Amino acid sequence: MQLTFLGATGTVTGSKYLLNTGSQRILVDCGLFQGLKQLRLKNWGQLPINPKDVDAVVLTHAHIDHTGYLPLFVKNGFSGKVYCTEATSDLCKILLPDSAHLQEEEAEYANRRGFSKHHPALPLYTKEDAQNALELLVPVKFEQDVQLGDDLTLRFSPNGHILGSAFVRIHNKKTSVLFSGDIGRPNDILMKTPTQIKQADYLLLESTYGNRLHERDDPMIKLAAIINKTVKRKGVVLIPVFAVGRAQELLYYIHLLKSSGAIDFDIPVYLNSPMAVDATAIFSNHRGEHRLTKEQCAALNRTAHMVNSVEESRALNEKKGPMIILSASGMASGGRVVHHLKAFAPKSNNTILFVGFQAAGTRGAAMIDGAESIKIHGQYVPVKATVEFVSNLSAHADYSEIIDWLRGFESAPKKTFIIHGEPVAADAMRVHVEEQLHWRTIVPEYLETVNLD
Ligand SMILES: [Zn+2]
After folding, report:
1. What is the CA(61)–ligand 1 centre distance, in A?
2. How far is CA 37 from the centre of its chain?
3. Which residues are CB-neighbours of 424 under 8 A, at least 6 positions away?
4. CA–CA separation, 111 vs 78, rounded Å?
5. Residue 264: pLDDT band by 50, 70, 90 thresholds?
6. How far lies 12's CA from each of 95, 234, 243, 297, in Å?
7. Rounded distance from Cα 13 to ligand 1 centre (Å)
8. pLDDT value at position 40?
9. Residues within 5 Å of ion ligand 1 by Cβ?
């Protein structure tokens, strides 16, 4: 077997790994590069493989940095099956058309305002391309073996990151490879503890938080303090969220804070992301995959006013605080939250609260680093609002949680490939794994190919 790293090397985005057995080519994850411009440009470049030559795609989970390249892959000739879990399939049905919509909207906006270097600016792919990709999805249950061609077997095991997210194990008679996907946390309020895997010949290990530990204190306390402080100033708490995962978690936390009296029960809460509204419904439909009961799901659903139309979304920018707005995208790189930032970032009584990982080059990363202004649609918008970051709400395990999970292996993999981390984080994870477990590790380069035998 040969493995080629086509993304998520030196970055947390663009996950794509090609497994080549000689008789079969399997692409695990088909993610979009996001963040820094030189990364985003990779989405437009030629892949070193022809999609027509790939037999199947396997998805670890629905997030766009793991699935968002699929419409383009299909447009460029891929016509095989796309295996994923049932919830991942449901979530892709909202995430991929939305990603296409964002691409179309951005191109359209650039053309209207004339700030693109390209005339006309074109979308990377369209809603129709996304629809064509969805036709190829093959939903599979967790912990069931699926045959890929004559020689390979595939299995998904829950990994606790978001609804439907999985460890992907692919093996033949000789060798097994485990793709970690994005690993969730052992004590997440919504998702169950990641499955303990005991063996793999080769392991691809994510390292988003390879150099950082999450705060250990209760995120509810910090969340309540931030909300109460902003409410006192009659400000708006704007929370950029991933539509899938953090949006539901935040709603549930806000429900708990309100019902325990830690924050004022009457503060209006808006979930302004049609996709997050749909994802919240899907979350309620897949009970058993997460920790919440039917009643808790219902409470989560009641916590926010669901904002659907563009008119309602615009009207929110005219409203006065106090209020809480949750809106996608989570790194403020696109979506409706960008319009809210334009409206609320320049006012000092507001708070912009980040709750997830912010990739380099995103507006989120810039604001956490203290940027005095951010560029939106070709204009600089001053950031006068308070910017906060609660790391303990992350959907990614930090390095100590990952090391704990790795300690559950009965034997060391022959090699562990450290992927899905920015360079400093990936290297820090390499050091942790080598020093604490004495495992052989490699931090692969973009387009590097290795033999697995
Ligand atoms: Zn993810």
Report:
1. 7
2. 19
3. 211
4. 30
5. very high
6. 18, 36, 18, 30
7. 9
8. 87
9. 63, 182
Distance in Å, CA 125 to ligand 1 centroid: 21
Query: In the sheet where 351-354 sits, what is the strand order?
Result: 305-307, 269-272, 323-327, 236-240, 351-354, 386-389
Distance CA 298, CA 389 (A): 28
Task: Burial-class residue 143 by CB neighbours within 10 Å (0-12, 13-18, 19+).
Answer: exposed
**Cα 340 to Cα 351: distance, rounded to the nearest angstrom:** 12
Q: In this structure, what DSSP letter does residue 371 have?
A: -
Three-class SS string for 309-327? CHHHHHHHHHCCCCEEEEE
Output the CA 384–ligand 1 centroid distance in Å: 30
Q: What is the model's pLDDT at position 114? A: 73
Q: Give me ligand 1 centre to Cα 282, in Å.
A: 17
Please tell me the distance between residue 63's alpha carbon and the centre of ligand 1 in angstroms: 5
65 Cα to the center of ligand 1, angstroms: 7
From ligand 1's centre to the CA of 34, what distance in Å? 13
Predicted TM-score of the model (pTM)? 0.91
| pLDDT tens string 339-383 | 999 999 999 999 999 998 888 889 999 999 999 999 998 899 999
Q: How many residues does the chain have?
A: 453
d(CA 165, ligand 1 centre) in Å? 8
Q: What gap in Å lies between CA 123 and CA 109, rounded to an integer?
A: 11
Of 60-64, 360-364, 397-401, 432-436, least confident by mean pLDDT is 360-364
For the segment 127-168, what is each residue's pLDDT rounded down to a tens digit? 999 999 999 999 999 999 999 999 999 999 999 999 999 999
Cα–ligand 1 centroid distance for 368 (angstroms): 20
Helices (H), 260-331: 274-285, 294-302, 310-318
What DSSP line would sit under 15-80, residue for residue?
Answer: --EEEE-SS-EEEE--PPP-SSHHHHHHHHSPPSS-GGG--EEE-S---HHHHTTHHHHHHTT--S
What spacing in Å lies between the alpha carbon of 154 and ligand 1's midpoint? 20
Q: Ligand 1 centre from 346 Cα, in Å? A: 30
229-243 per-position pLDDT tens digit: 999 999 999 999 988
DSSP 444: P
| Cα of 20 from ligand 1 centre, angstroms | 24
